[in-house]
């Protein structure tokens, strides 16, 4: 099992999750995570050699849809909840770099 | 009562009693004409948990993030209810994005337990359970990821069903953990549960995980003989941490079943102690991804003066999400992140297989499994808010069922000395709802616990 | 010093489905921004994806055509990253079980031979929308493209130079168009390329490898060729200047392509390692492919263009130029292939395709098959020219009418008066008239002057054609004139 989580890891995870944390939150989460992860790590006791993972509770496969178009909802409905818009677009501050993970 | 009268009565009761209970986030526009017809729920007023989308009005998920969000469409279950003549009168309070066990994590206010306003109603469908308990509405819908219908039903003294995964379409249920989420009905008795399930169950082509299994006549089944029931009692569900009053009430329920002719058999679910870890790894991992879409770009809260586009994400999410949601998103992100995936997420999926196998093995020996729903009765508001792990551990009896995808119902089986409700949980195999409802109905035919009303109803 | 480039390609091909990958929004290029969206592709709360069957089948066809192994069990994974044009902030893709793996694709070499390029994998994924910010101080987001099905094809680093990369891209475009799974229109961004380039340099018995450059988002064949050539040259020069310019020391780098400067540009700040947190999408169920489906799709894939080309050259004696026309698209090649069985003269049919039909198609900006002339008419036209019913030159007129109105080639030729007269008595009358009206020519034909006697029959034949208004069968006319001169000589 991995080593317990430190503050820099909490900050890294918060960055991946795109949640800005205050220093107090970093400290609080760090302490809580240590506890919770310790509990999570009890799974290491279980022998899962040769056990298939269960990603879906039911064994359903091949749910496929015919390639038939349906009328879209329209620009106004698409933008209706937008916190900022420049019709017919959503509007955000300028994206300077490419994707970052 | 006529349809109009039923709806008016519900709205009046909400107006009179809800200010002290805080079950309801919003009542829906009562001006909508009530249609006549012969639907199974014609004119019946129904409350819907606020993480289920309705095209009229707002759907918040109990979050500041979606405080003003208007869904452009009705959830599948809402379409079904409306088609059956039901009137959606209110949207109910819940833990933010259905994360919690007490409804204290609503961004708006905590809901109070109708049996004792100082106590929580359970969660996350606390508003729906409390609304039915206080008889504000006859029926409500909740959603259950790891016990969120069953546990508040238990703590509020009403019935709550988590159907088999895939029995009810998730289309329009704002996702918490996609492989676990199911919408479930809450009612005062099993007949009400059957009536609601009849309407909402069935295949929906918009949900790839929705089952094609035919929908039986649940209502008619209640009046048919159950035959001789064999009830399994998992010994791991009666261990340390179970409140003695709850143990006694559940043991009394076992005696009741015996007196009704059921065979009782002790069974084992050996991986029970790993359930909480397994459940919280999988549910937080899925939630971290499901909640990524709340970014302040297309809808939802956006921070006032973002520094740049990344700050739109980070600050909007920091401001829009409450602490429990942030905690779970971060836990889930961690469980999926590079270097930790195998130890956490991948491992949990394998343990999930073992937990499923435990149930298969148990159901090879009996028809129904029986346990407490919650290890404790309703706790005081604020009592557990500083200890998230303690809150998680309280989901010990409900989460394994969600991991296995089987149906389970919580029904009232008594009150504690301080007059707080106790829930009895019954479980069945995949798509075994008929047997499950029959077993629960048999109990209610022989007992009166479900008819007890909280003190608020006397007002 | 020896230099050996190592080149691999990542190619995104937009599939030609009618609707998006996980919702029923229609795909339409250049529609009003955000007008081709719905709650699902906008990533609105509570929505769920449902897989497009056609997109899946197209990807399997591509996999078969690329000679790959089709996964009998495949699934969908979420790839997480935040970007304004990604509505869910995860992309639905395929991670560890791509629909196709371990393929091999033949590409043509300039000498007429072919060479296989290894395919590592081909998988399905959804496209993002578009962030638009040119000339703006903010970014506009258009999600019409979000959810468009894409096939990502990854080759082995088998490609030897920029020209070979170019041929690969061209041949791949022909393949996906041939299969009908993509329009592969560059202007619409339906094919996008990301070459990975580095160079193995052997100097003094030691091999050095330069850092791998990934050149992002190229959208023309030309830019693929130029960018690779530029990178090879740049990397060799960089290594010459600094022998530490190696993969081991510098790792992998990302570059953009500046089309105006025809140069790659280093992209800063992209070295940060990604953590995409792939995991199986719980909203989508796995896909299994059974024998029957595989057989059905395999039959639909049929003979691949390069194999058909080889067959046409070997069987029908086509030239490379003929192939270019007749194998330009699948339907045309099939029209030809079906027609040829009913026409004895392969050369004549080929000539009509490359000449008449290609001319008419170009004029109408269509393919030959796209002209809509049924196979039976194509065959009929070839036959009536072959048996002399109409002249080769009259065939163009008939073909034009076939394009415009359809109908029978023979009837068109009849009503246009294009049928060649082959009745000897009718022809004899025209010939007699020509001989009567042109005594000088007849005299020349009978003279001992070899120059004159050789030219005269041709002239007389021309006169017969004129008198007959082109109806006389020229070949038969020539024969009859020769006969008449011979009889006059005796």
* Total separate domains of chain B: 1
The multimeric state of the shown protein is heterotrimer
Please state the overall shape of chain C, judged from the principal axes of the Cα atoms.
elongated
How many domains of chain C, as an integer? Answer: 3
Global structural class of chain C: alpha+beta
Please give the alpha-carbon distance between the first and last residues of chain C: 84 Å
Strand content of chain C: 15-25%
* Number of helical stretches of at least 4 residues of chain B: 14
User: Which H/E pattern describes the elements of chain B?
Assistant: HEEHEHEHEEHHEHEHHHHEHHEEH
How many strands in all of chain C?
A: 18
Distance between the termini of chain B: 21 Å
Q: What is the number of helices of chain C?
A: 16
Low-confidence stretches of chain C: none
- Shape call of chain B: globular
Distinctive features:
heterotrimer; A: 101 residues; alpha+beta; Histone, subunit A; two-stranded antiparallel sheet; 3 helices; 3 strands; C: alpha+beta; Arc Repressor Mutant, subunit A; 3 domains; ten-stranded mixed sheet; 16 helices; 41% helix
Q: How would you sum up this structure, described in words?
A:
The complex is a heterotrimer of chains A (101), B (459) and C (490). Chain A is α+β, with helices and mostly antiparallel strands and 101 residues long. Chain A has a domain at 7-45: Histone, subunit A, CATH 1.10.20. Helix content of chain A is 33%, strand content 9%. Chain A has helices spanning 7-16, 23-40, 75-79; strands at residues 64-65, 85-86, 89-93. The longest helix of chain A has 18 residues, at 23-40. Chain B has a single domain, classed as Amidase signature (AS) domain (Amidase signature (AS) enzymes). Chain B is 36% helix and 13% strand. Chain B contains 14 helices and eleven strands. In chain B, a hairpin with a 5-residue loop joins β10 (408-415) and β11 (421-427). The mean pLDDT of chain B is 96. Chain C has 490 residues and is of the alpha+beta class. Chain C has three domains: 2-288, no CATH class; 303-415, no CATH class; 424-489, Orthogonal Bundle (Arc Repressor Mutant, subunit A). Chain C is 41% helix and 20% strand. In chain C, the strands form four sheets. In chain C, strands 1, 3, 7, 8, 11, 12, 13, 14, 15 and 16 form a ten-stranded mixed beta sheet that branches. A three-stranded antiparallel beta sheet of chain C has the order 6-5-17, with no helix packed on it. A two-stranded antiparallel ribbon of chain C has the order 4-18. In chain C, a hairpin with a 2-residue loop joins β12 (191-203) and β13. In chain C, α10 (375-386) runs antiparallel to α11 (392-405) and α11 (392-405) packs across α12. The termini of chain C are far apart. Chains A and B meet through α1, α2 and β3 of A and α8, α9, α10, α11 and α12 of B.
């Amino acid at each position: 099992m991995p080593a317990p989580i430190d503050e820099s890891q909490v900050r890294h995870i918060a960055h991946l999750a795109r949640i800005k944390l205050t220093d107090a939150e970093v400290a609080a989460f760090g302490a809580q995570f240590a506890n919770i992860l310790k509990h999570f790590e009890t799974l290491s006791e279980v022998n899962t050699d040769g056990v298939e993972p269960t990603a879906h509770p039911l064994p359903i496969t091949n749910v496929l849809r015919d390639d038939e178009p349906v009328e879209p909802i329209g620009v106004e409905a698409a933008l209706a909840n937008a916190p900022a818009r420049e019709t017919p677009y959503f509007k955000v501050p300028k994206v300077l770099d490419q994707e970052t993970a | 009562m006529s349809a109009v009268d039923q709806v008016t009565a519900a709205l009046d009761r909400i107006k009179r009693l809800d200010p002290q209970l805080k079950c309801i986030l919003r009542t829906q526009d009562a001006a909508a004409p009530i249609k006549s017809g012969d639907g199974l729920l014609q004119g019946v007023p129904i409350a819907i948990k606020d993480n289920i989308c309705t095209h009229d009005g707002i759907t918040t998920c109990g979050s500041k993030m979606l405080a003003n969000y208007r869904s452009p469409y009705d959830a599948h279950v809402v379409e079904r209810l409306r088609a059956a003549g039901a009137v959606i009168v209110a949207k109910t309070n819940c833990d933010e994005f259905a994360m919690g066990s007490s409804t204290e994590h609503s961004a708006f206010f905590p809901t109070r337990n109708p049996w004792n306003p100082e106590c929580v109603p359970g969660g996350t469908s606390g508003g729906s359970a409390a609304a039915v308990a206080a008889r504000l509405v006859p029926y409500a819908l909740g959603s259950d990821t790891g016990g969120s219908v069953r546990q508040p039903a238990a703590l509020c003294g009403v019935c709550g069903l988590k159907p088999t995964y895939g029995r009810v379409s998730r289309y329009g249920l704002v996702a918490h953990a996609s492989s676990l989420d199911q919408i479930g009905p809450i009612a005062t008795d099993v007949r009400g549960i059957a009536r609601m399930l009849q309407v909402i169950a069935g295949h929906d082509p918009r949900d790839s995980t929705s089952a094609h299994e035919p929908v039986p006549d649940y209502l008619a089944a209640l009046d048919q003989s159950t035959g001789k029931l064999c009830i399994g009692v998992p010994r791991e569900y009666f261990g340390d941490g179970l409140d003695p009053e709850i143990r006694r009430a559940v043991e009394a329920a076992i005696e009741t079943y015996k007196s009704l002719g059921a065979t009782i058999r002790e069974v084992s679910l050996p991986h029970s102690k790993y359930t909480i870890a397994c459940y919280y790894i999988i549910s937080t991992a899925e939630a971290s991804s499901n909640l990524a879409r709340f970014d302040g770009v297309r809808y939802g809260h956006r921070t006032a003066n973002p520094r740049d586009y990344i700050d739109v994400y980070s600050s909007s999410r920091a401001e829009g999400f409450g602490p429990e949601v942030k905690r779970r998103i971060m836990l889930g992100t961690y469980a999926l992140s590079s270097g930790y995936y195998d130890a956490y997420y991948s491992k949990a999926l394998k343990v999930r297989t073992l937990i499923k196998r435990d149930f298969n093995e148990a159901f090879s020996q009996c028809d129904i499994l029986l346990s407490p729903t919650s290890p404790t009765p309703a706790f005081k508001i604020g009592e557990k808010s500083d200890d998230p792990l303690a809150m998680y551990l309280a989901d010990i009896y409900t989460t394994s069922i969600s991991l296995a995808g089987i149906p389970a119902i919580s029904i009232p089986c008594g009150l504690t000395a301080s007059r707080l409700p106790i829930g009895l949980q019954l479980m069945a195999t995949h798509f075994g709802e008929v047997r499950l409802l029959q077993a629960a109905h048999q109990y209610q035919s022989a007992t009166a616990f479900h008819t007890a009303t909280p003190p608020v109803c006397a007002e | 010093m020896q230099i050996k480039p190592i080149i691999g390609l990542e190619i995104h091909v937009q599939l030609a489905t009618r609707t998006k990958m996980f919702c029923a929004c229609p795909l339409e290029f250049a529609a009003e921004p955000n007008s081709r969206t719905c709650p699902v592709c906008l990533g609105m709360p509570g929505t769920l994806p449902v897989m497009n069957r056609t997109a899946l089948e197209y990807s399997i066809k591509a996999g078969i055509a690329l000679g790959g192994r089709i996964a009998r069990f495949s699934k969908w994974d979420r790839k997480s990253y935040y970007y304004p044009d990604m509505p869910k902030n995860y992309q639905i893709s395929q991670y560890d079980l791509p629909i196709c793996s371990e393929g091999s694709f033949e590409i043509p070499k300039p000498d007429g031979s072919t060479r296989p390029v290894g395919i590592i994998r081909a998988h399905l994924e959804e496209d993002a929308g578009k962030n638009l910010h040119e000339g703006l101080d903010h970014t506009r987001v258009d999600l019409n493209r979000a959810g468009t099905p894409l096939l990502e094809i990854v080759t082995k680093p088998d490609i030897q130079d920029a020209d070979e990369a170019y041929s690969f891209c061209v041949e791949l475009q022909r393949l996906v168009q041939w299969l009908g799974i993509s329009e592969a229109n560059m202007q619409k961004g339906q094919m996008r390329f990301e070459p990975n380039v580095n160079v193995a340099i052997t100097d003094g018995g030691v091999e050095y490898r330069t850092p791998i450059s990934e050149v992002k988002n190229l959208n023309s064949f030309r830019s693929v060729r130029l960018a690779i050539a530029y990178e090879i040259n740049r990397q060799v020069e960089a290594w010459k200047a600094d022998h530490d310019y190696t993969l081991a020391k510098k790792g992998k780098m990302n570059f953009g392509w500046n089309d105006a400067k025809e140069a790659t540009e280093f992209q800063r700040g992209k070295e940060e390692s990604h953590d995409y947190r792939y995991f199986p999408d719980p909203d989508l169920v796995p896909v299994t492919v059974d024998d029957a489906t595989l057989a059905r799709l395999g039959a639909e894939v049929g003979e691949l263009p390069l194999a058909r080309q080889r067959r046409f050259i070997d069987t029908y004696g086509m030239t490379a130029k003929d192939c270019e026309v007749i194998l330009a698209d699948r339907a045309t090649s099939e029209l030809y292939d079906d027609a040829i069985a009913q026409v004895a003269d392969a050369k004549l049919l080929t000539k009509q395709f490359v000449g008449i039909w290609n001319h008419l198609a170009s004029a109408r900006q269509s393919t030959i098959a796209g002209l809509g002339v049924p196979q039976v008419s194509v065959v009929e036209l070839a036959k009536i020219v072959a048996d002399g019913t109409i002249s080769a030159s009259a065939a163009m007129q008939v073909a034009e009418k076939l394009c415009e109105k359809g109908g029978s080639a023979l009837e068109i030729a009849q009503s246009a008066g294009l049928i060649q007269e082959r009745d000897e008595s009718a022809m004899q009358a025209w010939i007699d008239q020509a001989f009567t009206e042109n005594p000088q020519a007849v005299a020349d034909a009978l003279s001992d002057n070899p120059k004159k006697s050789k030219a005269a029959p041709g002239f007389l034949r021309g006169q017969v054609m004129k008198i007959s208004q082109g109806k006389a069968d020229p070949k038969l006319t020539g024969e009859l004139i020769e006969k008449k001169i011979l009889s006059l000589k005796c």
